[in-house]
Amino acid sequence: MIDTLVPVMTQVCGADYVITDPAELRTYECDGLTSHRSTPGLVVLPDTAGQVAGVVRACAAAGVPFVARGSGTGLSGGALAPGNGVLIVTSRMRRILEIDPHSRRAVVEPGVTNLAVSKAAEPFGYFYAPDPSSQVICSIGGNVAENSGGAHCLKNGFTVNHVAGLEVVTPDGELVWLGDGTGAAPGYDLMGAFTGSEGTLGIVTKVVVRLTRIPAAVTTLLAGFGTTGEGGAAVSAIIAAGIVPAAIEMMDALSIEAAEAAVQCNYPQGAGAVLIVELDGPEADVAAETAAVREICESTGATEIRAAADPAERAAIWAGRKSAFAAVGRIATSYIVQDGVVPRSALQDVLDRIAQLSASTGIRVANVFHAGDGNLHPLVLLDEGTDPEVAEELSGAILDLCIEHGGSITGEHGVGVDKAKFMPKMFGEGDLDTMQLLRCAFDPRGLCNPGKIYPTPRLCGEVPGFRRGPHPLAVAGQADLL
Amino acid sequence: MTSQPATGGRPPPRSAAVPDALAQACANVRQAGEADAVAGVQPGWVAAPASVAEAAAAMRAAAELGLSVVPRGSGSRLSWGLPPHSCDLVIETGGLDRVIEHAHGDWVASVQAGVTLEHLAEVLAVRGQRLTLDVPAPAGGGQGTVGGVLATGMAGPKRLRYGTPRDLLTGVTIVRPDGLVAKSGGKVVKNVAGYDMGKLFAGSYGTLGLIAEATFRLHPVPAAVAYVSTECATAAQAAGTVAAAVQSPLQPSAVEIDRPAPGGPIGVSVLLEGNPAGVPARVDGMLGLLGGGAAQSPTPPAWWGHGAGDGTLIRIAFWAGRLESILDAADAAAAAAGLRPVMGGSPGAGVLYAVIDGLAEPAAVASYVTELRNGAGHAAPAMLPPVRGSVVVLAAPPKVRERVDLWGPTPAAAVMRSVKHQFDPGHRMAPGRFAGGI
Questions:
Q1: In this structure, are B125 and B201 located in the same domain?
Q2: Any CB–CB contact under 8 A between A424 and chain B?
Q3: Which residue of A has its CA nearest to B348?
Q4: CATH for A96-213, among 1.20.1250.20, 3.30.450.20, 3.30.465.10, 3.40.50.300?
Q5: CB–CB of A441 and B422 under 8 A?
Q6: What is the pLDDT of residues B13-66, one digit of tens each?
Q7: What is the pTM of this model?
Q8: Residues of B370-407 as b/e, b for ≥16 C-beta within 10 angstroms?
Q9: Do B278 and A170 touch (CB under 8 A)?
């Protein structure tokens, strides 16, 4: 079936940019989350928005599912294409089309990396604020699909707060602009609804991003505490003092140990927790807030406080934190990265419960988290002999804890295929049905990135209610019921 | 991507009596009076539910009866947009008046739709926090309710730094046109699980359903506040001054301008907020940037906060770097139409408002709007996006409304109609009020 599309795809993209070789196709079988795999039927690498539209029109005409992929760094299996589907890779579309410093806007193609936008804006005194930790390689198109955050989104917001216009190819192959770059376009905010829709509503082909003034001053503090409880108390006190830090990150003893082994970050010895607090803004404000944060850390029991005096020292402080995920590979044979959110005020309770889960299963959990916004990244460590199923269960139990505390099953990694089964725990049937009305408006045939986010696809046009028998899309092989 | 025009039978002719199904659904239903008219359209009944469950029951009853519905908050902006094609039932949210939760340690608050911004501000201030939506209040009125402000997507000067309602919304509970209650998002600031219905409902003018509850991200009330203001003789000077303020690293929360008459002097005022140890230094820096005539004050100038004027209220959105040409285009349009609009707003955020006297000749207002649309909002050839702005008439006297295309061209209107059709297949929610004929 899919082979019949090769001639038209070749005509649209050029022979060099249509991949049919099975070995080459397998290089696209997973994204950053390697536990889910699916080899696409066909991979195409279009160079322009017009080519993306041509590819999508061909898929739509043939009734073939299609999936967009940027740099493939996603952590929820969101960019997997089924064996009977086409994977549309945007990595050739990496032109920065315009930088308008006076309007504080840049217009870029979806394959441009996150960091490349900031680099291009830097000579004008600006940067692109969302900074997912994969920013060196992850693409803006992927960021839009996932509504990516990063360590600094407590103060600066997420991708959706920094996008002002999107050119998209709709699932029937039409090119339209959602938003006009102003942030005040007439009509529904489809741009806002599209951002974070994980590639299920269409394919982004151009993005107008907002640029942010590079702050005059930045200070980064590293504070060591005896326990995460003490560190958490410091976070609460900082928030209560009305200070909005650019970032507040916490690591527990196990993740410190791992980072130390990997990058010798030289964090305070014997600390049960470290807190990284970054403050940015105008000079005098930052100086006053830095002094206040120091005082708070001291009064809540910090054993040691260091301040970075220059970018090199700042990088040294961040090195441990940024290496944490990979670093646990040094102290375990493999690991599962979890991404959940709890209200900040429930952090300590949830950490205690995670510790109990860890103790009862004998599986170690290292905790790294964005303490300011309650976004946890527990790392479930698998050792020789650890039952992977028990580890998966533990990882899932952590999400249950997040839901129980009024939080979310994902703060920034997305639902993808990985967490679709948790959606009904967080949302009711009516909630999920309502969300999918939007899907029906964009993609009534369910061809665009099928099987993601929602465990049960909505049949568009049907009357809400209980469905009897298997879903027609599932029968047709266009949707996986997870 | 198809959309269908309004289908299905129109409701039975309105009788004076409240239909039984409606009366059973909601304890507080009455016949509508003249004061309940929506942009000149007389509704049949007004329902005032006291709970989300009752609101849902009223919406379900309206669906069963095939009634067209317009949600109403405080009614302060009810005359905005186009008159509905039909309005059988007004659902008034004043009874949904609970601040459900202020989780001050988490910087979030959950509130029902009928809570006024003023009441919410009082509750949040107890813990030194605020919802940063400084929506300008119409003369003699309040800022409006949470639901109304969300539905119109209205924001004030602080949008420069904090964005508009959609940026501050973390979760929303809505009642669908079929009466089903649905939520999206949640009460944590960081959350990417599922589609964000809040984005869709913010600024939707009641055309997709009823906003019942909302959760917002909050900010601390700054300990120090100062305004630095000056006056510029020309559009070029004002544009330079605004650019200097907005592009400075002094972190302005708002940069506002005011031009009381075409071609006349332009007031520029900058709001600086933050730490008492930092604001004075920033005030000094801003005084330096704004030049000799600038002065500081603890309070805003009298003209601060545009977007609530009487008469014809027009919103001009543009890429901020084009401020000078927008001001010039507005002057040219005013001269051609023989009008003297008052201009002002948030140029750093790319939003200005023009207010034209309510007694102005409708044909002249129509010509002004047309000229402005021709003169503003387009990119240079071959640049994308090709349309880079809009001119929307937010409110106008009935005679002007008849002469002017209020919403103007709406990119992606076909997709929007498709969304509308999915949520409201009977086209009963505020039909015809919105952009793109929705």
A1: yes
A2: no
A3: A103
A4: 3.30.465.10
A5: yes
A6: 455 799 999 999 999 999 999 999 999 999 999 999 999 999 999 999 999 999
A7: 0.95
A8: bbbbebbbebeeeebbebbbbbbbbbbbeebbeebebb
A9: no
